[in-house]
Structure formats: structure tokens, C-alpha cells
């Protein structure tokens, strides 16, 4: 894996838009990018905007190939304006598959994903600013156990992101460590590609002081289609919902964890938007 193009240190002069799981929905992604002021046809992004996508671009929806081609256009034309993170569905094509999925990407699309990973254009983590704090952004979130045992308790989001990206560059398998969502038992140290928000990520920080806040996709504590919480009452009581954007914000001692997975399946089920910061 190469050095990549984008620093994880946030630029306070920029707006950041963090886009949740796309799941093969090309038209929905184009519409959201257009709303943000980006041009899907030319691959250009406004100079004051940086886009972060949390991974799981592919599978579920009707056109994963077009989604990857669209993102490749932005990575080619607008780097470092686009920061692409790796999700567990992209990871299926970067290493030995860890689960069965009924859809399979075509060879050209797989080659693009592998090129991104090899060139460092697709990474594990980044950081975005939020007021006076920095938020770590990963696909599934950083569990307390992974932060403590695997990373050695870094005090800043920037340091945690640098360490996670180095683990990816070195091919450390722990970043792909599964838990409940890979058929195993619940784990407070599930990795940042696989941690379940309701069963692992959020419960792991109960009773602990968070060193920094986070943003993640992958899964959610709230079922947007059934309109009910998947998480235990202790989590639900700490969580506020943004129904217009499809975001959930769970408060802990020391920070918040923002979930932005819109829950796309074969169809886009409800309104959703990127999580957006304001420039200083």
C-alpha cells in the first residue's frame, strides 16, 4: 500500500462532508454530490470542500460498477479533495473473502479497488474537525478494546488515524478483525471494518471516557426502516436522531459517536444526507 495523497490532519479552513455507505446506489450518490456542490460529470469539487466517504461503496444496490467509476473520477480529478475509506465490502476484494455475498463485482471494478488500496488512495481512517474537537472517521468505528489493546490508547484522533493507516499499509490483519457481524461472539475489541454499532462499538464505550469523538458507517443503533432501536436502552437513552439526514448521535463522557450509515438495501429506503461541518 502506497503513501496516499491526503493527510489525516484536518484543515480548519475547509468544509467537510462525510458520506455514509453507498451500497451500489449510483444515482443517489450523484444526487448527494450535486447537492454538496460537486460535479459528478467532471469530477470536480469546490475548493473549500473536502469529501470523505466511509466505505461500502459496493453491493446491495443496482450499479456498484458505476459507483466505483464515479468515485475513481473524483480521485483522479480532485485529489486530495476526495478521501476514500475502505469498508468491509471493499475488503472482500483486497484479501481472502471472509463472508459470502450473492453479488460479485466485475474484474475491471475489482482492479480499480485494488489500485486504490495499493496506491494509498483508499485508507482505513481520517480525521475531520468539529468545533473545538477532531473526530476520527472509520468505516465501522473504533471500539474501546481496539483503541486500548491494539493502538495503545492514543490520545488524539489524528494519532489514532495515523496508526490505523499504518496498520493497513503493513497488512495487519487485526484491522479486519470480526465479531458479532461475522458470526462470532460480541467483542469489545472488534476491528474498525466490522464492529457492530449496537452490539460492540457503542457498548464498548459505556462507563469509559472517550479520548475523542468519532464518525462511522457500516451499521446503526437505530433501524431506520422499522423505526426502532436495535441497541440496548442504555444506548438508546444517550442517542438523538436526525431523521431528515439519517444520522444518530450517541453521547459519552468525553465525546460523541455519530453514525451515518443510511441503511441502504436493494433500494434507498428513506431520506439521507452527508454529515457536514462548517469552515472556521
TrEMBL record:
Pfam families (UniProt xref): Metallophos (PF00149)
Source taxon at top rank: Bacteria
Domain Calcineurin-like phosphoesterase: 15-141
Name of the protein in question: Calcineurin-like phosphoesterase domain-containing protein
Database matches in InterPro entries: Ap4A_hydrolase, Calcineurin-like_PHP, Metallo-depent_PP-like
Amino acid at each position: 500500500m502506497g503513501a496516499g495523497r491526503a493527510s489525516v490532519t484536518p484543515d480548519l479552513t475547509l468544509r467537510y462532508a462525510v458520506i455514509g455507505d453507498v451500497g451500489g446506489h449510483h444515482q443517489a450518490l450523484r444526487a448527494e454530490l450535486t447537492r454538496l456542490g460537486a460535479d459528478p460529470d467532471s469530477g470536480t469539487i469546490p475548493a473549500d470542500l473536502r469529501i470523505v466517504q466511509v466505505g461500502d461503496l459496493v453491493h446491495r444496490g443496482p450499479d456498484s460498477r458505476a459507483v466505483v467509476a464515479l468515485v475513481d473520477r473524483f480521485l483522479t480529478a480532485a485529489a486530495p479533495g476526495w478521501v476514500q475509506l475502505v469498508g468491509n465490502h471493499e475488503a472482500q476484494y483486497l484479501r481472502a473473502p471472509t463472508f459470502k455475498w450473492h453479488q460479485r463485482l466485475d474484474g475491471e471494478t475489482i482492479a480499480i479497488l485494488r489500485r486504490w488500496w495499493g496506491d494509498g488512495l483508499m485508507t482505513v481512517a481520517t480525521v475531520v474537525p468539529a468545533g473545538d474537537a477532531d473526530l476520527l472517521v472509520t468505516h465501522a468505528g473504533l471500539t474501546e478494546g481496539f483503541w486500548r489493546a491494539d493502538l495503545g490508547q492514543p490520545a488524539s484522533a489524528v494519532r489514532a488515524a495515523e496508526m490505523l493507516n499504518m496498520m493497513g499499509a503493513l497488512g495487519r490483519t487485526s484491522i479486519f478483525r470480526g465479531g458479532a457481524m461475522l458470526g462470532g461472539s460480541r467483542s469489545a475489541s472488534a476491528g474498525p471494518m466490522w464492529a457492530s454499532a449496537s452490539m460492540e462499538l457503542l457498548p464498548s464505550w459505556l462507563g469509559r471516557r472517550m479520548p475523542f469523538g468519532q464518525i462511522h458507517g457500516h451499521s446503526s443503533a437505530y433501524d431506520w426502516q422499522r423505526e426502532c432501536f436495535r441497541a440496548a436502552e442504555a444506548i438508546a437513552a444517550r442517542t438523538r436522531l436526525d431523521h431528515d439526514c439519517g444520522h444518530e448521535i450517541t453521547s459519552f463522557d468525553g465525546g460523541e459517536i455519530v453514525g451515518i450509515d443510511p441503511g441502504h438495501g436493494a433500494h434507498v429506503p428513506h431520506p439521507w444526507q452527508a454529515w457536514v461541518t462548517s469552515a472556521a
